[in-house]
Design a protein that fits this description.
Two copies of one chain form a homodimer. The first copy, chain A, is an alpha+beta fold and about 190 residues long. Chain A has nine helices and eight strands. A four-stranded antiparallel beta sheet of chain A has the order 1-8-3-6. In chain A, a hairpin with a 5-residue loop joins strand 4 and strand 5. At the A-B interface, helix 3 and helix 5 of A face helix 3 and helix 5 of B. Chain A binds a DNA duplex (30 and 30 nucleotides) through helix 9.
Chain lengths: ~190, ~190
DNA sequence: TTCATTTATTGAACTTGTTCAATGTTTTTG
DNA sequence: CAAAAACATTGAACAAGTTCAATAAATGAA
């Protein structure tokens, strides 16, 4: 059940077999049905999770009720509200399953235990956070400099497997545009082909 | 000379006096004159830096020649191109001093030495990267959901000391709008007061 | 299968933001 | 100090993106 997790960890750092077993033993499998929430705004995020099945969206709802999708997570991706989890403060985010999904969760206490006992775990999360940060920097630059057309085209090119599983409403909330405008962009692209 | 650095580190983790001395001893002071570059796109970023004087801008130039500012760094902030530094690949970013500035720099080799010898340093950079990442997530959400007016007002409110040292061109490049439009926003705000 | 709900498309009017060009202001630098 | 360079403002025309409302299409639940 933790095969995918082990493979993921191995892609970042190297652990001995027993270290790997010990660390992965700290995770608990959780099944989340479509449209159910792993986290809601206002709660304190009690877990860091690794997706083994399905797909999640991590999003924010602003004062006017509009949704902004921070990221999607499919199999082999990690999910958490890093701010709420590390600082134990109420989350501003929602994490919702978009399909029947499963994730392996680790609690804060167990994660801290791992940091103490296995120094390489500290490295694992440093490296992963760095990579996530680099990706977000790129997205930030793209959002500052590119039109919605370009961002949409690059999104479907970069995540072909992902965009097929999403509605246009969700993609629009990720790109930061209205779904009506996304519909117009899609039409324009179709006409050009 | 490393007083500010020590204080900064202490705000994230606790080190013994000798650990602190050893780690801080790995940094070299560098003076960068106004309009000079600490890093240019195409180069491999050889340092991670801590600003002790002045101000830097970290920015990207896109294909059409427009600049997007990823962040500013004043005294007590860290600067690097984390992607180029960790993966030793050509940078896409420029780091330029906007005033006569100084920074304490650590090389990759010395930083890796510190990771090996002082496990707490691993924690230091994990924690710092997490905080930076949380801040960038917030900025991403703001950029997806707020108008330029709101983003400008929040910027000057959040960084009052910073915005006074910047030109409107630089603030516009950070907010992702043209400087002409920023000028119009400023006028509108003045009229309202 | 059918009815209800969610999702997608379209058009028209509107708002936000850009571009370009001209002009004035401030800052640098020789 | 004077000249040059960089910065800021403004207006007009335009492009990008939103909002609202109507309709069609797809999906899901009973």
């Amino acid at each position: 059940m933790t095969e995918l997790l082990k493979k993921n960890i191995s892609s970042h750092i190297s652990l001995t077999k027993s270290e790997m077993e010990e660390f992965c033993g700290l995770f608990q499998n959780k099944i989340i049905k479509k449209k159910k929430f792993l986290l809601s705004a206002g709660e304190i995020c009690k877990f860091e999770g690794f997706v083994t099945k399905g797909i999640f969206r991590v999003y924010h709802i602003d004062k006017s009720g509009a949704e902004q999708i921070l990221y999607f997570a499919i199999e082999n991706w990690w999910i958490t509200d890093i701010d709420s989890f590390t600082n134990e403060r109420p989350s501003q985010l929602f994490i919702e399953a978009l399909e029947d999904s499963e994730a392996l969760l680790i609690s804060k206490k167990d994660k801290e235990f791992a940091y103490e006992k296995l120094p390489k775990i500290e490295k694992l999360f440093r490296v992963m956070t760095q990579k996530t940060h680099v990706a977000l920097q790129r997205r930030m630059i793209d959002n500052l400099s590119k039109t919605a057309d370009q961002r949409y085209l690059e999104f479907i090119e970069k995540y072909p497997q992902l965009h097929q599983r999403l509605t246009n409403l969700q993609i629009a909330a990720y790109l930061g545009i209205s779904h009506e405008f996304l519909s117009k962009i899609r039409k324009k692209i179709l006409l050009k082909k």
